Predict the structure.
Amino acid sequence: MSVLELTNITRVFERGLPVLDGVDLTIEAGQVVGLLGQNGAGKTTLMRIALGMLRPQTGTVRVFGLDPCERPVEVKRRVGYVSEDQVLPPYLRVKEVLALHRSLYPSWDADFADELLGRFSFQGKEKIAKLSKGQARRVAVTCALAHRPELLLLDEPAGGFDPAARREFLETALQLLADEGSAVLFSSHHMSDVERIAGRVAVLDRGQKIVDRDLDELRESTTLAVLAANNGVVPLDLKALDGCLGARIVRDELHGLFLGSPEAVRSRIASVSATQSPRFAAITLEDLFIELVEGRR
Amino acid sequence: MSFALYRHERVVRLTPVISALSALFTLLVGWTLLGVFTRLETSNGQPVFDAEDALLVLLLPLLQTLVFVLPFLPVRTRVQDHERSLPVTRRTLVVVRIAATWTALVVPLLVSSGLILMRLRGEGHAGALLLPVANLVCALTLVVLLAFAWKPAKERLSILETLGLALVAALVVYVSLYGGLQGIGLLYLAASLVAAFVIHRFVPASTAEDPAADTTFVEDVGPGREPLLSPLTRTILKTTALRPFNVTALFFLVVCIGLIGVDNPVLMLWFPIALPIHVLMRSLTLLNGFDALPIARARLFPWIALPTLAALVVGFLLMGVFPHEYRSYDPVANAVELDSFSEDALGAEGEYSLHVRTPPQLWQLATTADARLVEAPWGESFRPLPHAVLWGAPLVVFNPYDVGPQSSVRFLTWQLARALSVAHGLHLTPEDIHARWFADLHPDTKLDDVKKSGLDPQPWSALTAARGTTSPRKFGSLVALAVFFWFLSTAWVLRRNVPARTLHLWRRARTRRIAMSLGLALVFVLLFAFTLRDDALLPVLGALAHRSLDLALGTSAWAWVGFDLVLAVVASLVLVWRLNRIEVPPLPRTGWKKCEVSVF
């Protein structure tokens, strides 16, 4: 049984502007999936639907085989959630916030919570109102992790973290849970974070899932072809080619992102421009994301 | 720069909306009250309208304005974080805040006053309103200045300080209106100058955060005393029931229903629905903080909805404790009495006759003219005036103990004997009544020929005073009414937040939401229209429903308690089911104000 199973999810807030448009996503136990997308692509909505905070207008949601809207308490007890705009009661102290969560999650691991607090340099007496944004986020993350959830939904979890805290969070806490078999779906604009811990990447663009692949496989199977612009070939020509994920003009160059080996891509490009020979550039995940999203405009 | 800040103050941007609502409220309620007062105080054909009447006419729209405007008044937080980065002095900010607050309070008041003046223009007593309005403007000016002169160096007032300020403000406004004190406006203006000097002298120039001026910045990391409540209970309480806005609005609810809205059916409809809707809509938004946590909504339900129910019940019970008499213009009364005074007591134009007024629970329903026919044993009959329940529908309510101009004195005493028996349990024969109070009139004299002036409306009051009225159990039905209003308003707010289940239905969601809002507005307008058209309808229909329930429950107090409890439990179950289906309304993602982005 999949930990999270989203099928044909559509959600609309404004007429004619679907935030999610027929999205499918399945996550198995132990998988760490990075959810990428521009602002407004639908990442937060997808996570809120997965947790039962929003209802989809089409499609089905199953978390541990349950409908999170129908059985919200059972589902939420097994899920950890940190959102980018999460707020904690400012009049409580850190230890009281943890006590609040401990009373709600039967699987709360007090030792693990103490360990996380120690790593984040909290004593527990600090008032939430006095914490910085990053410190408050650490408390929220501690609350989301300490009951050892079977599914972690992290919406920009490391947004307010300094680099050291981010690495601590990603490599230690998150990895620890993933090693224990927890599934993780996290969104981030830090591609280095995604590259560091995600085994799989899903990319949302304007409400649609355009990529859902194993990260290594994605890196190996995509090729960035660079041609001279203003030389008879336009982005639309490349987009019409088989395997083209996106094409765009960057200053005086034409970039085309393709699935397939450089040799295969070269032969495809030859069909639209016999005179030009493309150059193939090394591509990072960040470049891939930008080419993919911008190249579809 | 200052004007740009002023224009962008939220409360200034809302002022047109608040003014429009205030104007609407004045048209619906203020004008009704004016009608009441001018008719009530008609004496020898000359209407009298004094400053005390103006107090109520003005105060109600003002209260309603405050309900709308209070959450947005920028008096509590003097400097917000983003404003520290702006190239303005603290004094500029304070001046902007003062101007914005003053605008939000005074403009709706002037709009309401203007509408009332328009109504009074032709009646020759508009002058009576001018002094209270001027006093009120001076009072509001002083209140606004006091709000900023109070601890001027502080950047954010605590809850207690804000409540203290609210009490002072209420006192200042109350004194300004009550009794129409002629010199109070000048006194307030003088006090305003002192307050303005204090602001000028003690408001610091810099917008930089000053921990020394604000005790809330003192760090307290000591263990302190353990709180009595668990963190979860405290968080739920502070997020829902004890939210300052909710507490304020619920306090208004109790005051408005219990002390103000009791003698006017129009207000009886407005406050128990509009105020709970305000509170519940806000409470639902605050649930964002709990939405991701594994807490069943049923567990949160009592904290969200029961404070409103409690406020409604307390308000309605207060109504019962402090019963107000029906106005003399009403064709219904608290006790059996003769009406020889108000020209249009029954709404019949030009009619000037004697009538028997009875409590609303004694009225009856009828669908045909024959059903209204009241016939005495000797054959004399009378068909009481019908009050249509719905336009065009044959269903009417009527007072079966009434008399007409062509009725005889004998018929009058027969009707009075029946009415006194049913309403007060006072068993007198028609002959007794005639001998005691109408001995100087011949039994066959037509009432049209009887001189009405000088008639005592309740000559039997000495006999009935000790008995009271045999009205049904008042408190049981008042609680039932509170539950009904609570269910109505809560169900409406929850229904608004139930998402469409399918994309197809969602396309109609906005239409549905608009239709729901328009429907509610239409219900309000229709009810207002009914009430304005015929004052008898709502009390009579309510009393008839009440009487039916009382009969069904055998007038037992325990049966009423059980009935109210069952009603509340059933309503709660339906509402919890509905709460489980809603989506929590989103918080604004961005915003300058802390309260806009914080749920706790």
Q: What stands out?
A: The CA atoms of residues 99 and 265 of chain B lie 37 Å apart.
